[in-house]
Amino acid sequence: MVVTGGRSHVDLTLSVPAGLAGCLIGRGGATLRGLKEATGVSKIQLGQQPANGWRSVNLGGSQTSVAEAYTEVARLLRAESRLAPDAPWSVRVMLETGAAGALIGNGGKEIRALRDETGASIEVDHLQASASERMVTCAGGPAETQHAVHAILALIAKRQHARHHHFLAQWAFETDYLDHFETPADAFADVMPLLRCRALDVAASTRRGSCSSNGADDDDTAAAAALQELWVYDPYYCQGAVRRALVALGCASGRVLNENADFYAAVEARRVPAHDLLLTNPPYSGDHKVTRRR
């Protein structure tokens, strides 16, 4: 497993025997879809090509939902393997080198405490030169290995939170480190024809302008004027690049709505600002993808 996380989001990549992976997919992907709906994870992805007889299964979402998804995946894999309910087994975990070091702790203090707490055998392989990841093997009964994986998730999430706490404190709402990479300026330039068209439609509908013109120069002048009057709303605040990019492309600064505020709280309180156009690149952590699709 490769585990990463922010304030409220973790990614967990399991390495499972390739011959068992089919039980996680189901007919037409039905089992995967059922797992997502039942556990609330934002993603479950299987690697396409087996590597040395193993296949990756990536789970992403909140720490709680990923823990629940792991429990369900483990149940399905054990059933497919026809293991007795209490039969021991092992779980392979891949951690970034730094995370593996945190798992071990000073002089092995953390890993010894984790073994005592979970009752599982937890072993970390030797650090290889230039290696970016280390293998962790958790072995024991189903309850012990589940406890170990859940404890590893909690430890990694805590570590990630400590690393990014000061950075995340910039925002007035719960957020995730991986959500704060601004959309490139080229992407805004690509959608400007749509914004200009919408601006002209709004101008025409409010008698501020017209979509008809006598030539290309008139069209450009009308579109430029209409853009200055267009209210554009991006509910997901990163670090303000949305406003800067759109202003550089002809929008009015005061009419680009992108504030350091909790969008979901605004929806709940019915305080979403009036706007002519919603333009956004939503976050990809947690269940944002699911929310967008719905």
Helix content: 40-55%
In one word, what is the shape?
elongated
- CATH names the topology of the largest domain as TATA-Binding Protein
Radius of gyration over C-alpha positions, nearest whole angstrom: 25 Å
CATH architecture of the largest domain: 2-Layer Sandwich
End-to-end Cα distance = 29 Å
User: Spatial order of the strands in the main sheet?
Assistant: 1-2-4-3
Q: Largest sheet, if any? A: 4 strands, antiparallel
Protein name: K Homology domain-containing protein
GO molecular function, one term: RNA binding
Keywords: RNA-binding
Organism: Chrysochromulina tobinii
What do you see in this structure?
By secondary structure, the chain is an alpha+beta fold. The chain has two domains: 3-169, 2-Layer Sandwich (TATA-Binding Protein); 178-293, no CATH class. It contains eleven helices and ten strands. The protein has a four-stranded antiparallel beta sheet. Helix 3 (63-80) runs antiparallel to helix 6 and helix 5 crosses helix 6 (142-168). The longest helix is centred in the middle third of the chain and has 27 residues, at 142-168. The chain is elongated.
Helix/strand layout:
Blueprint: E1 3-5, E2 10-17, H1 22-25, H2 30-39, E3 43-46, E4 54-61, H3 63-80, E5 89-96, H4 97-104, H5 109-118, E6 121-124, E7 133-140, H6 142-168, H7 185-205, H8 216-229, E8 232-233, H9 241-248, E9 256-257, H10 263-268, E10 277-278, H11 288-293
Parallel strand pairs: 8-9, 8-10
Antiparallel strand pairs: 1-2, 2-4, 3-4, 5-7, 6-7
Helix pairs in contact: 2-3, 3-6, 5-6, 7-8
